[in-house]
Amino acid sequence: MKHSFKIAAVMGCAALLTACTPKEERREKAPVRVKTELVGKSLTTTVATGGEYVGVVEENQATAVSFTSMGTLKRMAVSEGQSVARGQLLAEIDDTQARHLLTTAEAQSRQAEDALQRYSQLHEQGSMTDAQWVEIQSKVEQARSQLAIARKNVSDCRLLAPVSGIIGRCNLSAGETAMPSQAVVTILDISTVKVKCAVPEGEIAGISPTTSTCISVAATGREYQGGRIEKGVQADALTHTYDVRVRVDNKGKELLPGMVASVRMGTAGRQTSATTAGQTTAATITLPLTSVQRRSDGSLFVWSISADSTAHRTPVTIGESIGNRIEITSGLQQGMPVVTEGYQKLSEGTKTQSL
User: Fold this and answer.
1) Which of 13, 60, 226, 257 is the right S-S partner for 246, CB 3.0 to 4.6 Å?
2) Which domains does the chain have, with CATH numbers?
3) More confident residue, 143 or 277
């Protein structure tokens, strides 16, 4: 009886194992869903003639000139657009009160100087104390100081040009009241001008301080060779563009602030994400920046998908970044599927399914 029970138990276990084995074998892990990009299938372009942007001419430097005291503007000695030299008279305010104060200060100074001469003899004879002599000297110094201030106030009634340039704007007219630090005129330095343009964030990396530029200005009907470039470091929050300023020599002073210009950047060899006029397709391989991963030893790789839909680490070397993409200089072949999204769940040999 015991033997029969054992045999039945063994047969039951064998049957159970036989029934379970096929089910376990049939259980396969679901493939990881990923998004891929075929190497070389997405168009990359190279700028052939350089990016072209709309720009505006700006002065190299603007100097706002103002009076140091309040007064009624007596006359303007210059007009807008006029060339001025350093030290040239720009405007005058009514100096009547300043001259009255100067006359008073001169009288007080003469009185103090006369007293100094008379009391100096008494001091030498010992007829006055040292304290009295010091007081006399102090009054003379005060009178001299007041005289210097009065002369300066009269001089400040005449506004002189601190720099050479062109009058850009006259903010006051004769008869109006000029306030301290209120700009009366603005002097512009246009011996060298800057052409300001907005460059999209995807193209700013391709512009360096020495990038060659060609400036075309319709108002003058001429083209100008651009000089050194200044790049802004803060993007416009709305347009995601950066301000770029190109220096242009303007010895003839033909270029005036506010003129519209066309700026062509000589950025040959740079890639962009879309083909536009003046560009040609290039064979350079690029991938999204996020698709390139880094190992613990610092080497770079991407997840490529083989013919059996399994993921494998493929070592790559990179070049320059181009907007939100990166140039792949070696490691990939045309037509190879590379994972661009969903790589976080992958490991070597993981079965995948493309979205």
Assistant:
1) 226
2) 32-47+280-354 (2.40.420.20), 95-155 (1.10.287.470), 190-269 (2.40.30.170)
3) 143
